[in-house]
């Protein structure tokens, strides 16, 4: 039987030929998948910096790749490089001469507090200038260029492009918590348009700091269940009280199915559909009727040429915040109807925390692994069900399942919503 190379709209079918991941659970696909499916939590107490006076003192930081002096830009690069190199090598390409474009989801950056204080303490005529612009000007002239580099969002993609040998101008984007999924969508669309036969798509975020924790705390978004860090993230539970900030990186090598088969490499899964819709209701809240979330889910499934009944598993956005979990459940119920009762849905954020900019890419990796391995990761810490959210959350223990399609949701602050639909390779 001949394998079709085009989808229902005549576009190239997108194959995933390489995967890479770093999270609080560890480095690499094998370690992360083993711990994820065993229900292991990577959430821990913060030791990287002083937490005195902070309401939240726990996180999912990647401490095995950093120290107290590592900047957010340097850590974001290190994790992206590790995940990207793993994915490119798995796909059978040279990890120094990939030869395709790079699409990177990276956190928005600005000068970190310690750099601001150091520069502010400098003497000189620059001190007559005012505010943040004055500090940027000092940084531009400082002999240590790394200080200025920490203010440049494109710095990570520039270094990655050199390291991996990508082609063309690397694209850096930031669409809040949907960023990782957005980067993958850009890669999918580039291949569908015939601009390239392959692309590497990476999401990374190493921005846990005192400042970032304070900012999210001021939004009442973070969990304050500091007593037992491993129990703090509890998506869809009645006693959930906020998300746990985390770090990590996920990478996928995308390729036209025709190219992958011609090269004779392993196809780990397919990307069947992408959906995105904006929500202009509020900077941090969803529109009360859930219409943008509903439209995003429908768009992704329709782009894949599927129906809700074809989806065998949902990789939830599942942040563990009271409103987000409720709105996601509301949106899914509107799309899936009665079928939702028999469709398993789980959140790996219960184990790795919310990796923000990287989340969509990391969760894409886990979605592909669920399809390939026939195992659904659990939602751990599901001990107090929310009677207002009746879902099969794969509670506390992984489950074997023969699934052919996965929906992965990513809903970001600022109303930036993206959904990806993945299919099994065979």
UniProtKB/TrEMBL annotation:
Biological process annotations from GO: fatty acid biosynthetic process
InterPro entries assigned to the protein according to its UniProt record, in alphabetical order: Beta-ketoacyl_synthase (IPR000794), Ketoacyl_synth_AS (IPR018201), Ketoacyl_synth_C (IPR014031), Ketoacyl_synth_N (IPR014030), PKS_Beta-ketoAc_synthase_dom (IPR020841), Thiolase-like (IPR016039)
Domain Ketosynthase family 3 (KS3): 11-424
GO cellular component: cytosol
Keyword Transferase: yes
UniProt KW keywords: Transferase
Entries under NCBIfam families matching the protein: PRK06501.1 (NF005076)
Family that this chain belongs to: Belongs to the thiolase-like superfamily. Beta-ketoacyl-ACP synthases family.
Protein name (Swiss-Prot/TrEMBL): Beta-ketoacyl-ACP synthase
């Amino acid at each position: 039987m001949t394998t079709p190379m085009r989808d229902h709209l005549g576009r190239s079918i997108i194959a995933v030929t390489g995967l890479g991941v770093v999270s609080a659970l560890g480095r690499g696909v094998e370690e992360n998948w083993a711990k994820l499916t065993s229900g292991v939590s990577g959430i821990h107490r913060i030791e990287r910096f002083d937490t005195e006076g902070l309401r939240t003192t726990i996180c999912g930081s990647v401490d095995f790749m950093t120290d107290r002096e590592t900047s957010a830009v340097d850590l974001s690069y290190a994790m992206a490089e590790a995940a990207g190199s793993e994915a490119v090598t798995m796909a059978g390409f040279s990890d120094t001469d990939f030869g395709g474009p790079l699409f990177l989801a990276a956190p928005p950056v600005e000068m970190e507090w310690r750099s601001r204080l150091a520069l502010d303490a400098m003497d000189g005529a620059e001190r007559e200038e005012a505010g943040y612009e004055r500090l940027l000007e000092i940084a531009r002239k400082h002999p240590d260029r790394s200080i200025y580099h920490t203010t440049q969002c494109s710095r990570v993609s520039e270094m990655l492009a050199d390291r991996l040998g990508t082609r063309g101008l690397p694209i850096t984007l930031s669409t809040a918590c949907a960023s990782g999924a957005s980067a993958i969508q850009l890669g999918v669309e580039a291949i569908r348009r015939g601009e390239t036969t392959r692309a590497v798509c990476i999401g990374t975020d190493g921005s846990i700091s005192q400042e970032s924790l304070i900012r999210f705390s001021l939004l009442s978004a973070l969990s304050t269940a500091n007593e037992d860090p491993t129990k703090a993230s509890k998506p869809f539970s009645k006693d959930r009280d906020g998300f746990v900030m985390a770090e990590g990186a996920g990478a996928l090598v995308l390729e036209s199915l025709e190219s992958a088969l011609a090269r004779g490499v392993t196809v780990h899964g397919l990307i069947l559909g992408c959906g995105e819709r904006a929500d202009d209701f509020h900077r941090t809240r969803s529109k009360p009727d859930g219409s943008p979330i509903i439209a995003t889910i429908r768009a992704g499934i329709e782009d894949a040429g599927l129906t809700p009944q074809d989806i065998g598993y949902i990789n939830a956005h599942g942040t563990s915040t009271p409103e987000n979990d409720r709105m996601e459940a509301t949106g899914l119920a509107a799309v899936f109807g009665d079928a939702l009762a028999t469709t398993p849905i789980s959140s790996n954020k219960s184990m790795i925390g919310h990796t923000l900019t990287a989340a969509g890419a990391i969760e894409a990796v886990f979605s592909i692994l669920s399809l390939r391995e026939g195992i659904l990761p659990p939602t751990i810490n599901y001990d107090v069900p929310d009677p207002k959210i009746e879902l099969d959350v794969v509670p506390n223990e992984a489950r074997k399942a023969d699934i052919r399609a996965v929906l992965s949701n990513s809903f970001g602050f600022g109303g930036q919503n993206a959904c990806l639909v993945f299919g099994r390779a065979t």
